[in-house]
From TrEMBL:
Stretches assigned to the DUF7924 domain: 130-377
Organism lineage: Eukaryota, Fungi, Dikarya, Ascomycota, Pezizomycotina
Biased composition (Polar residues): 11-24
Composition skew (Low complexity), residue ranges: 392-403
Taxonomic superkingdom: Eukaryota
Pfam families: DUF7924 (PF25545)
Region annotated Disordered, chain positions: 1-31, 391-421
Protein name in UniProt: DUF7924 domain-containing protein
Species of the source: Heterodermia speciosa
Length: 421
């Protein structure tokens, strides 16, 4: 790994001016890639050779074909794309992902959340409409399939406990509440901000550098649907959500801190393509949130997690759907530190089965409720902590500037005032 960048408030582009000088550009880009930004103090790394990589996720390059054996015709092969993602540290159902305490806890929490009970019982009318409409739309193109089927699955309102919003309500009272009121927003076919898709750094290793160069060019994520929050959800923490960390807050421009992405395929599409697309998108979500957490002073634990540690995705075609959870992992072994981004399967659904469609309805609504509920509450706390650190840093820089200005004398003050503002 390249040497970790110095972590001082003044040298941190996220805590200073939003622009980055040309001298800082390379470091800034590397920080955003996710391989430089570590929440724990890393030990001195050893070179990322193929042998060293094998210590962490098996020999990731052993299944790759000869570096020179690929041509442009294989670039769209989903199996080749999957291998390329794994080479860059974006892992799909990695066997080692659940061997750590943190990985186990994140996966179990995600499973419990997705399968949790809903206050609203299944609507027989909705299930019948979904299955019958599915039969009509199975031959439609991707855009039509998405538009028609998703509006049946996700209504504009959902059932919530009234007491949560009205202290005077009874314990068993339920009300229908709009998602929009709780700041849920979405974007359709919106490309993510560039620069946050993680990847490995060859650190001068010729063999690995050649492999990465041959298999470079991962596409920037552009999910069919992305769910996040409205800007007015962050009024309590000042302007930080809209100005100081604009790119990090709006990874999907127009919504804030997205937590759930959906990739659709038509009957002509390949669901493995959708999985590969979701793995990139999920990696960006967890990578960008990790950078924000680091700036807030939240250190990653080997055993514990918080509600910013993971995100969700859903892939579906006219026949089936699958839910996944994504998280970031820092592995350290034999003095080598590598960051991996996991995508792990939670549950599968057959869309021609009403019972299965109801489980999908429950899963999707539970994820959305989590995003506008517990996760939003955690996010507000984290951003308030980040704002406090930012204000403290700004105050320190201001005080240092004032002290320096006082020592200049009149001549210096005059020279300074005539310069650029």
């Amino acid at each position: 790994m390249a040497a970790k960048r110095k972590r001082t408030e003044d040298s941190n582009p996220l805590l200073n001016d939003s622009t980055t000088s040309s001298a800082e550009g390379s470091a800034g880009k590397k920080a955003r890639s996710g391989c430089e930004v570590l929440l724990t103090e890393p030990v001195s790394p050893t070179p990322l050779t193929e042998a060293n990589l094998a210590l962490f996720a098996g020999n990731m390059t052993s299944n790759m074909k000869s570096v020179d054996s690929y041509d442009s015709g294989t670039a769209k092969d989903p199996n080749y794309v999957r291998e390329k993602l794994e080479l860059h540290g974006i892992l799909f159902n990695d066997a080692n992902a659940l061997t750590t305490q943190r990985g186990k806890k994140i996966f179990e929490a995600a499973k419990d959340l997705v399968a949790g009970d809903r206050l609203s019982p299944p609507s027989k009318k909705m299930l019948e409409e979904f299955v019958s409409t599915l039969q009509e739309e199975q031959g439609s193109n991707e855009a039509t399939f998405m538009d028609v089927m998703w509006h049946i699955l996700v209504a504009s309102r959902r059932s919530v406990k009234a007491k949560h919003y009205d202290p005077g309500a009874g314990d068993d009272d339920v009300l229908r509440r709009k998602w929009k009121v709780d700041h849920l927003r979405h974007r359709v076919d919106q490309e993510f901000v560039r620069g946050y898709l993680p990847g490995l750094d060859p650190n001068g290793e010729a063999t690995l550098a050649k492999l990465l160069a041959k298999h470079a060019g991962m596409k920037n994520p552009k999910p069919d649907l992305a769910y996040g929050l409205a800007q007015d959800a962050f009024k309590e923490v000042g302007s930080i959500a809209s100005s100081d960390h604009r790119d990090l807050a709006q990874i999907s421009p127009g919504i804030y801190h997205p937590f759930f992405i959906i990739e659709f395929k038509s009957h002509k599409g390949d669901l493995m393509d959708a999985m590969n697309q979701a793995s990139r998108g999920g990696a960006v979500l967890t990578n960008s949130m990790n950078i924000l957490k680091q700036e807030a002073g939240i250190k990653e634990s080997a055993d514990e997690y918080d509600l910013g540690s993971f995100a969700f995705s859903l892939v579906l075609d006219p026949f089936s759907a699958k839910t996944y959870v994504h998280w970031r992992e820092l592995r350290i072994k034999n003095d080598t530190s590598i960051v991996y981004h996991h995508m792990h399967f939670i549950d599968g659904y057959i869309l021609e089965s009403k019972e299965s469609v109801d489980r999908l309805r429950i899963a999707v609504n539970n994820i959305l409720d989590w995003g506008v509920g517990k996760r939003k509450t955690w996010l507000l706390g984290m951003l308030a902590q980040l704002e406090a650190r930012y204000q403290e840093s700004a105050s320190t820089r201001s005080s240092a500037g004032s002290t320096k200005g006082k020592g200049k004398g009149k001549g210096s003050e005059k020279a300074s005032s005539s310069g650029k503002s």
